[in-house]
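In this section we walk through a basic example: taking a raw amino acid sequence and producing a predicted 3D structure, encoded as discrete structure tokens. The instruction is simple. Fold the sequence below.
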Amino acid sequence: MQDFTGLDKKHWSDRNPVPLPASTAGRETIIIALVEFSVEGPVATITFNRPHALNAFTRDMRQEFGEALDRAGADEIRSVILTGAGRAFSVGQDVAELQASYEEEGPQLARLIYEEWVPLVAAIRSLPKPVVAAVNGAAAGGGLSLALAADIRLAEPRTSFIAAFVRVGLVPDSGAAHMLVRMLGLSRAMQLTLTGQPFGADDAQKSGIVAAVAPDADALQEAAREWAGRLAEGAPLALAAAKSVLYSAADEPFSLVVDEEARQQDVLGRTEDHREAIAAFLEKRPPVFRGL
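The resulting token sequence is shown next.
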């Protein structure tokens, strides 16, 4: 495993998070030491809160992020925003912690990946509600995997996606290779991976990795709230099923995907939300979805 970008690595082992307000008007905020979880209406925002370390992940931070994702699974949450405090989304694995683990027990990278990184990536993809990543600054190494795992990505001019694994003699992990090839195609994914070159916001938008590029970091957060708010108005069961079908479509043969589509449609056709959508269409009014 890796996660090194050449970006301001000084103080990567310093774990003091930036203080954040416990609440704001109309917003409930739970501060876990290294992660902020806040809820505004039906939208939850998870913020990586180690800005002095470019939100490099330690073991404690991975655990707290997992707990935040569990909270985001609550029925009252309809959509989720992922973002980072400060000037980076996340540069992935904390290098100082990684070196300390090498000194203690030698490299155990497969175990680290399977036990601590892959479950987070899988949890984002399998969360039965839309996940919007507001990618501020660098998303590198494991941070790249987390950003790519989101359903929709938004960027700002400083955003860069960096597959820097080869710079430290390693390969993409935590699903990064799988997602890069499927999103970019083999040739472009190979180029980015073998060179470790940053992939900027404009290129990412042209390639379809990001849906939109905001003019600055503040506008990015506002755009993320707007996207998440619109998604939260959708039919929850249908959104969850759509995620499942589309991820299956990216990974499974056509015949299996067709079967999954039919299965999901059969279930959704019996829901109250579907009946409400039909009634609203006929009555020329906006539907009110309840997740039933």
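Looking at the output, two observations stand out. Residues 236-283 form one domain. The mean pLDDT is 85. In the next section we compare this with other chains.
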